[in-house]
Amino acid sequence: MAVKRIFVDPSRCIGCRACVTACRECDTHKGQSMIYIDYINRGNTVATSPTLCMHCEVPVAPCAQVCPAQAILISPDGVVHQADDSRCVNIRNCVYACPFGVPKFDTSGSYMRKCNLCYDRTSLGKPPMCASVCPTQALFYGTYEEFVQAGRTKQGAKPVNVFYFGRQRLQTRNYIVMTDQDEALDLMALAEEASLGMVPDVPEPTLTGQSEPWVEAETAGVPQRVAPPQPWAPRIAPETPTRPAIPSEPSPVKEPEPVAP
């Protein structure tokens, strides 16, 4: 039986956060969103990417392996569920072990929460909430064959589900859509290149391409207001000249009325 997966295509994400809103509507999420929108490079582009649980397969989910209470269960179809709050002992091993940084610890409920692939829907053949509302299909739910039949590979897309973290190789249930020449992603190497400024294909900042070049105020002829020498000192309002008081005329003295005899 073909396994349906989520194909995450960051190049299609427009940051509308429809998936975040829809994720809260899942019955098993208790009103909490289990999907996050991350900025790829905030200083150079407004591009965003959805982040959700990748449901690691080989080796099996690290978050479940490090849980001493076996609070994170994996269903026979490979879906890694969020921690059972009745078994979670709040040591947060899963938060530290996940290479993708997906599990989040709910301090109010004292349990771990993460994407469980909307199991109340996907177990019945329905798509997860996030993929069902994505307007650009940045989140595509289906089998690998359905992804190919949709024509996505004709646009140069290459689904990748093999990741390297140094020497550690990890294969996931869900895919990240990359270009056709990528077979795997070495995330540690990418992080090192980014920290050293060795990313040659960083897109041009959006502001640079859609605005006029900066012009100094003197060149543009914009008048500048002269600042006081000490603008932080309290400013005293100028005294308003007072008008001299006009002498008023004395009121006439009222004579007493005569008393009748």
CATH level-1 class: Alpha Beta
How do the SSEs run, as a string of H and E?
EHEEEHHEEHHEHEEEHHH
SS-derived structural category: alpha+beta
Q: How much of the polypeptide forms β-strand, as a percent range?
A: 15-25%
Q: What gyration radius follows from the Cα positions, in whole Å?
A: 33 Å
Shape: elongated
Low-confidence stretches: 231-235
List keywords for this structure.
261 residues; Alpha-Beta Plaits; 10 strands; alpha+beta; single chain; two-stranded antiparallel ribbon; six-stranded mixed β-sheet
Structure description:
18% of the residues lie in helices and 18% in strands. The protein is α+β, with helices and mostly antiparallel strands. The strands form three sheets. Strands 1, 4, 7, 8, 9 and 10 form a six-stranded mixed sheet that branches. It has a two-stranded antiparallel sheet with strand order 2-3. It has a two-stranded antiparallel sheet with strand order 5-6. The radius of gyration is 33 Å and the shape is elongated. Mean pLDDT is 78; it is low at 231-235.
List the helices and strands and how they pair.
Elements lengths: L4 E4 L9 H6 L12 E4 L8 E4 L4 E3 L3 H4 L27 H5 L6 E3 L4 E3 L5 H4 L6 H5 L5 E4 L1 H6 L7 E9 L2 E12 L5 E2 H9 L10 H4 L7 H4 L41
Parallel strand pairs: 1-9, 8-10
Antiparallel strand pairs: 1-7, 2-3, 4-9, 5-6, 8-9
